[in-house]
Structures
1.
Amino acid sequence: MKIGVIAIQGNVEEHVIALEQTLAERGEEGEVLKIKHRGIIESCDAIVIPGGESTTIGRLMEREGIFLEIKEAARARKPILGTCAGMVLLAKEGDAEVAKTGQPLLGLMDVKVKRNAFGRQRESFEVPLQMSFLNEPFHAVFIRAPAIIHAADSVEVLATLKGHIVAAKQENIMGLSFHPELTEDRRIHHYFLDTAL
Ligand code: GLN
């Protein structure tokens, strides 16, 4: 299996390592590719859009022609995971802060996102988070995290925190407000790869 990590900016290396560990834990042959240019996504079975600065990642992805390729991958039902800024980019709609920047969105999830949803005073925090598909809570690291403030009925909510949706899935597309790549727990990466088989 080939997994592509969009490697334009942000938490790229951490996702690559997490995915390599996950493949190894599964005893699965695989390769994790860093995607900086167009022409690679088509060969990937699953795609991860990391956290970072969504305005920068979005603009560069669009300029490199990666935006269109991700939309095609989504249409081909390949699993796509967006974490933090990556989740913002997956959304159909953003709040006023997102609109203000004029940042391009992929529009692959029927959700409205809010940037920095947990306020400046709590730029970064960690919580044990109950997720719908896990028995034990997941230690979730939030860094200037966005949240989903509205979701269509077709969106499956995987976790909520303080009245916001912080993890959700719509068919082959999954968005997380937090950073599963920053802890050693690989359960979410396993869940993501399960959907790729
Ligand atoms: N607030 C950032 C953004 O929307 C996301 C922060 C992150 O990815 N850690 O671009």
Note: The domain at 2-194 is CATH 3.40.50.880 (Rossmann fold).
2.
Amino acid sequence: MDNRARHQAILITGANGEMGHGLIHALAEQNVDLVAVDLHPLDPALRSKVRAHQAGDILDTQLMQRLVSQYEVTTIFHLAALLSTRAEFSPEIAHRVNVTGTLELLRLAHQQSTWSGVRTKFIFPSSIAAYGVGGKKDRLQALKEHEYTEPTTMYGCNKVYCEHLGRYFAEYYQQLAAEPIKGGVDFRCIRFPGLISADTVPSGGTSDFGPEMIHAAAQGQPYACFVRPDTTIPFMAMPDGVQALLDLYAAPEEALSQRVYNINAFSCSAQDFCDEVHKYFERPQVSFIPHLKRQAIVDSWPAAVNDAPARRDWGFSPQYDLQNAFSDYLVPRISARYTSS
Ligand code: SER
């Protein structure tokens, strides 16, 4: 294959998702060529930001190989996944998408690097769902990456395993080959807390109670929160999540002392969200009707995580806490969104 025949591009899977939206906007400003893949046709608002977009399944090998016959993929942001609540309704499908899909993309990344001789960057979002601390008092401590990684959901199991798969591809894949491998996969992973975007509403997750409450209040709609008021987990405003992806992507490989990094912005409870919503929106109608099984999932996640390695190695430093996330980001943008629609 003559590499000069192909245009260099960054591949983004799950492009229509919440994180895909933010990331495509941010990368488009860096003037890089993006190829976006999603199960559904790309959101028209994103189309002018990418060089190419393709509706289809990441498990469709022909589709993915057709893409790499056209583009030399230098980096993959692999965002496609079935989230924690949805995955419990169809665990085997979730496993196929979340694990087999990731394996196929790691192979594709490796294949790309053998042609170019340059390591293909593979940026992977993992999640606080990788933890399983249910009922233990340690859920109140800021957990390090290796502590309590015995998740209770298919999504969490998938994420922990894919963290290992990525590490394996980066360090051991084809370790018995006679010739040393040129290139390889430069796997980098962030364990995200619950993310809150002003521009999109999540679907299928279990941290969704926070963003759902805010978007409902902004539209004057009632919201029945599916966890108890005291339920506390780490959260982050989407711009900080996107910036973290960009910062980890840009970091020199030698600065990275590990492949999987926790990041945290603020820990808050469902009641804290409710209090903020009352400050900014007129007569929000929030009730608490815990769904015991979804509650148990959230209770299996830590209330805080230790993100010292991310701060030290690649300068992670979130801009938003709970208060300024509401005052400076969520309320202005969400209000504009619903008044203009
Ligand atoms: N937002 C994810 C979920 O709720 C957790 O990272 O599934």
Note: The pocket of serine is lined by residues 83-84, 127-129, 155, 192, 194, 205-207 (CB under 6 Å).
